[in-house]
Design goal:
Blueprint lengths: L2 H10 L6 H13 L9 H14 L3 E5 L5 H7 L11 E6 L5 H10 L6 E5 L2 H4 L7 E6 L6 H9 L2 E10 L15 H14 L4 E6 L5 E6 L2
Parallel strand pairs: 1-2, 1-4, 2-3, 4-5
Antiparallel strand pairs: 5-7, 6-7
Helix pairs in contact: 3-4
């Protein structure tokens, strides 16, 4: 049995894609040039489960795309005595804003999410928050920069997740020419020797780096 068959079996035995996410998935594939940037059903469920396990009050997502991952991450937000949980998400492409806001509204999370349009490196320093969970899924050469920008603002015991950490297997290249590949390799190597964290590079889909900041 090959890996595709196993993945299909796993998907068949997981909670089905929620209707609003199925609709967003379809629209993304019909309208976007690079629809594979969408997390998709299984990774979306993984992010949803992680968020629900952590029960974060403050989430930062770097790279919204059409909003699929944000909708799943928001499922775990909790309220506290200080107020409602909130997810800040940053998207560089202003042409995606209408789609993002439409689906945030359809998913009923518009009051739980603050959407920022612009360069993440400029926006992150302006956010006066302590993060319980950070999800990085943006331009690959900047992964390590984003990690360093958020790190001091992640609470002890908090988590950083980074998508595409295997980069379609290109991380095994000995002399990578692509800046994207170089960025992912640099990020993975830095995290793996960072004594401030524990980390797991999960070989799921295109790789998910899970990082827990030491208490």
């Amino acid at each position: 049995m090959n890996s595709d068959e196993l993945f299909e079996y796993a998907e068949q035995h997981s909670t089905p894609e929620f209707p609003v996410l199925e609709k967003l998935n379809r629209e993304t594939h019909l309208t976007q040039v690079y629809p594979r940037m969408l997390a998709g059903h299984m990774q979306g469920m993984l992010l949803r489960m992680i968020s629900q396990m952590i029960s974060p009050e403050r989430i930062l997502e770097i790279g919204t795309f059409t909003g699929y991952s944000a909708i799943n991450l928001a499922a775990g937000l909790r309220s506290s005595s200080s107020g409602e949980g909130i997810l800040h998400t940053i998207e560089v492409d202003p042409e995606l804003e209408d789609t993002i806001r439409k689906y945030f509204s359809e998913a009923g999370i518009e009051r739980k999410v603050t959407l920022h349009i612009g360069q993440a490196a400029d926006i992150i320093p302006t956010l006066n928050e302590t993060w319980d969970l950070v999800y990085i899924d943006a331009d690959k050469p900047s992964y390590l920069n984003y990690y360093n920008l958020v790190f001091d603002h992640v609470r002890p015991g908090g988590f950083i997740l980074a998508d595409n950490a295997l980069w379609d297997g290109k991380v095994l290249e000995t002399n990578p020419r692509s800046r994207d590949t170089q960025g992912i390799i640099e990020f993975n190597e830095f995290v793996s020797v960072d004594d401030r964290v524990e980390n797991l590079l999960l070989s799921f889909r295109d790789g998910l780096m899970i990082v827990r900041k030491n208490a």
